[in-house]
Amino acid sequence: MKVGQNNFRYVLVGLAATAALGLHSSMALADTSQAAKAKVPAGAPTAWNPKVQSAPKDPVSGRTFDDQQIATIKKVGAYFNKISNLKGVFVQTTSDNKRARGKFYLKRPGRFRFDYASPSKLRVLSDGTFVAVEDHDLNTVDNHPLKDLPIRILLRSNVDILRDANVLDVQESDDLIILSLVVKGDSTSGQIKVFLTKLPELQLKEWVITDAQGIETRVEVAKLEIPEQLDARLFRRSQLGYPEFQSGN
Fold first, then answer.
1. What is the pTM of this model?
2. Which residues contact 141 (CB under 8 A, 6 or more apart)?
3. What domains, with CATH codes, occur in the chain?
């Protein structure tokens, strides 16, 4: 499957969000997908779990939260702040139910790489300033400023969700946290909904991006690892038509 230029921003985000500090992501992608559908159906109301906590809406600045909910938001921010290097696999599902798979790598602050599996020849990577969408089939590269992506608030060296985002909703049950947010002052990047499992420890499970037109793209992650280092060459743009650096992983 080919992923068009307009879809590249959804793959990310939260990218970095691909925060997976919980090293024990051994669940298979199929299991992840089934669990997500079983626990949090798409479009499910807040009442999907009677133990979920939520707060009244405030359409301008997000929501008003109690102390426990604020603590949950800070917990999520602290989780992302612990991530320096990360790698794993992903499954992306678009609104028309098309799926693509691949591997990803993350190096904070600001750098990430998504390699789509065959037959796609697409790669999306950030060098910390620009996001390059490399099509190794058409031999083209499209560049976009990282600052135009909502994912940027989760890629910073200091992640502070309460400072940088309008939190639209926060839900917490015994085994799951769901956080929905938009970047403060940015009405065009779209909304991020991040899902984190709590058992056996806090770990990123998936994220859903909803663009300004209401189109959703879901990214599920698995086989997450936190290496001590990732080679910086992974995040350099390719010279299309020339040999590329391969991680060997």
1. 0.70
2. 132, 133, 134, 135, 237, 238, 240
3. 5-235 (2.50.20.10)
